[in-house]
Amino acid sequence: MLLTRRDLIKLFGASAATAALGVSPKAFSASAPHLVIVGGGVGGTATAKYMRMLDPSIRITLIEPNREYVFCPGSNEVLNDEVTLAEQTVTYDSIRNRYGVNVVLDKATAIDYDKKTVRTAKGERIAYDWLVVSPGPDFVFDAVEGYSRELAEGDFPHAWKAGPQTLKLKKLYQGMRTGGVVVISAPPMPYRCPPAPYERASFMAEWLKEHNPTAKILILDSKPDFIFQPHYETYWKEKFGYGTDNAMIEWVGEHNGGKVVSLDPNTRSVKTADGETIKADVINIIPVHKAGKFAFDTGLTMGKQWVPINPFDFRSKVDKNVFVIGDTTEADPMVKTGYLASNQAKWVAQVILAEMTGKDPGYPLWTNNCVAMAGEDFGMTITDTFRYHDGKIELQETIQSPVNLNPHLNAERVAIARNWQRTFRRDIFE
C-alpha cells in the first residue's frame, strides 16, 4: 500500500507529518515505544522512514552492519558502463539525521522472544516493543553441484547482490577473449527480481556487440519460460540475431535441458540436466534463493525455505510482536521485488501505528511496479495489484506493457524505467 505525503497530512496533520524531521535519535523519550528493525535494505529502511512519518514520538532503531547500501534496481547497467556502482550506492545519513532513526552499525545475531531483545555480534542487547525483520534473501549454493559461496566471491560471481561481485562480473566478461562464451544460469522461481537475468544478458550483449561482436551469451534456464519473454525475444531478434545460427544470445529453457546441475571450476564448464557439458569463458550462476541467514538462525523459517507469515499483517508465526517482510518471506503469490518490500513495509508501519493508538489499521492493498530494459532503447513495465481476501494474499490484477515495435514508445519506457529507479531510491533513502 502506498502512502504519499498528502495521505500522511490527511491522516495526522502537517505538524505530525513533519515534526520528527531533523530530530536526533537522542531527543526521543526513553519511555517511548521502541521499534527495532533488522536489515537496512529497501524493506527495513522503508519501515524506518515511514514509521517515523506516521508517528513523531516512537523510538526507531535500525540494525545494519554496512555503512552503505548498493541499490539493486538499475545495477545491471553497471555491466554495460551506463552507470557506475557509486551512482547506485546510498548511505543511511538521511534516515539518521532527517528522520531521527538510531542506526546501529552491527550485525544482528539472535532474538530472545521472551525478553523481547535482539542480540548483536558486538554483544549489545537491544530491547524492542515491535521487531521488523527484513534481511533479504540468501542463496542455496549447493543446488548446483560444485558451486560454493567461495567460488562466488572469486571467478564465478553471481552478482545477485549489487556490489563488488557486480564489478567482478563486468571485468570478467569485458576482458574475455575474442569470440568468447558467457553462460548465465537462471534459477527457478521464486527469486529476487524475475526479469533481471534477461536484462543482464541484454546489457552484456549490447556491450559485446560493439567490443567483441563474435562473442556469445548462452542463457541456461531452470524455468520453461520467463517474464517479458515476448519483449526480450522481439528485441533480441532485431538486435542480436536471436533464433539464427549466428545469434549472439541463445536461451535454453528447462524443458529443453536448460537447467544447470553442476559446475566444474577447473575446466570452466557446466553440466545440464540432460547430461550436456558446456565450456565457457565466463560462468554466471544465479543461485537458488532461500530466506536470509538471520531468519534461519532465529527459527523464523520454522524449518522451511522461506519465513511463514500471517498474510494480513506480515506477523511472524513464531511471535506476534515480530514482523517479517521482503524477499525472505513466504508471501505467495507476491513476487520478490524491492517495490513490494517497500509496500509491505508501509503497511506494517500502519499496523504498528494502529496498535499504538488502538485504531483499525484499515485494509491492505499492495502494488508491485516493475520496470526492465532490454537495451538503452527498449523498456517494459508491469504492475501487479494484490489484496488480502479469505485469509490469504490474492493477485487481483496485472497490467503489462504490450510488445510494441514503435521505437519511440520503447525508448519512452526506458526513460520511465530510469525515472522510476531514481524516484524509488529517493523514496526509501532520502
From TrEMBL:
Q: What positions belong to coiled-coil segments?
A: none
Keyword Flavoprotein on entry: yes
Keywords for this protein: FAD, Flavoprotein
Q: Name one GO molecular function term.
A: oxidoreductase activity
Identify the InterPro entries for this entry: FAD/NAD-bd_sf, FAD/NAD-binding_dom, FAD/NAD-linked_Rdtase_dimer_sf, FCSD_central, FlavoCytC_S_DH_flav-bd, FlavoCytC_S_DH_flav-bd_sf, SQRD, TAT_signal
Pfam families tied to this protein: FCSD-flav_bind (PF09242), FCSD_central (PF21706), Pyr_redox_2 (PF07992)
Q: Cite the FAD/NAD(P)-binding domain residue spans from the record.
A: 34-136
Report the transmembrane regions from the record.
Answer: none
Keyword check for Transmembrane: no
Residues forming the Sulfide dehydrogenase [flavocytochrome c] flavoprotein chain central domain are 166-287
Q: Which parts of the sequence belong to the Flavocytochrome c sulphide dehydrogenase flavin-binding domain?
A: 364-429
Q: PANTHER family, from UniProt?
A: FAD-DEPENDENT PYRIDINE NUCLEOTIDE-DISULPHIDE OXIDOREDUCTASE (PTHR43755:SF1), PTHR43755
User: What is the official name of this protein in its record?
Assistant: Sulfide dehydrogenase [flavocytochrome c] flavoprotein chain
Task: Give the source species.
Answer: Sulfurivirga caldicuralii
